Amino acid sequence: MPIRQLPDILVNQIAAGEVVERPASVVKELVENALDAGALRVDIDLEEGGVRLIRIRDDGGGIPPEELPLAVQRHATSKIGSLDDLEAVATLGFRGEALPSIASVSRFSLISRREDETHGSALEVEGGRVGDVTPRSHPRGTTVEVRDLFYNVPARRKFLRAERTELGHIEEWLRALALVRPDVELRISHNGKASRRYKGDEDLFSGARLVETVGREFADNALRIDHSAAGLRLHGWIAKPAYSRASADQQYLYVNGRAIRDRSVAHAVKQAFADVMYHGRQPAYVLFLELDPTRVDVNVHPAKHEVRFRDARLIHDFVYRTLHEALADTRAGQTNHAPA
Ligand code: ADP
Ligand code: MG
């Protein structure tokens, strides 16, 4: 075959392979867009584990009608405009990839109204084919509907799991989000029944959200952390060693408000617990690391699950020392461990 430029729809479908793994990835991208738009209330309606329907409605700033077709174009974003912006990203999104990717593998519609518009506007996309913008009534904010995910990609559809499993992934991700944004009201419904509501309007440190998400037992055993040094701040909660887990199921790490996985930081936490926790047990924690955005590269992974720190060693040691110190009291209480 000669070399040729692939058609846009196919390019988006290839990108979807990285960005859209399952319904939970769609929910993640769409709710992140809602938060980037300043939403304080997000309604999430799901059917059949999100495979049949994902509908996300927010009360954020909305999209002007003339920009709707752009929103579903690849590499079109309102969030960055230059390399400098990219190096200091403060929004959750910035790649301009989510909507076109999702729209290329579903029956998709985008309905939005800005405060200053008299009515809303809608745009439908089916399997990547973009329709016309039409008027549609809508309150201020945006609704995105994603139906029949992967209906046109049978190879992908095969990898979808049972409804409960897909729903579980969505709920787990929403829990992680609810932890870091207690100020936002989240309402989740599944197959027409309200399944979860996070009330919103809460202070990150009131701890109320902690009980709602990770549970009363964690909260009762939590040590509050808040330490800053060298332009780094680590805050949140770690559970006392007595509340250890058999698996890493309660380990929440956020970097500048973004839930991520990071081996080096996870290792630093484990090290800090090493002499106070039985071998094979896992610590439970909810930790927020904050640093200047120029010190962390978020453009590492299309789904943005990972970041790269400019000074990874420094951060590892900062996390280790902060938590080691915080655990000093639990260590002093133990008689069978010699101090290091
Ligand atoms: P990104 O989030 O990386 O910019 P997306 O493909 O997710 O890319 O979204 C494209 C653009 O559409 C965004 O930059 C934003 O301007 C607009 N947009 C998407 N969702 C919303 C929303 N819920 N509210 C307001 N604007 C939105
Ligand atoms: Mg986005």
From TrEMBL:
Residues of the DNA mismatch repair protein S5 domain: 210-328
GO molecular function: endonuclease activity
Keywords: DNA damage, DNA repair, Endonuclease, Hydrolase, Nuclease
Function of the molecule: This protein is involved in the repair of mismatches in DNA. It is required for dam-dependent methyl-directed DNA mismatch repair. May act as a 'molecular matchmaker', a protein that promotes the formation of a stable complex between two or more DNA-binding proteins in an ATP-dependent manner without itself being part of a final effector complex.
Family note: Belongs to the DNA mismatch repair MutL/HexB family.
Name recorded for this polypeptide: DNA mismatch repair protein MutL
Organism: Luteimonas fraxinea
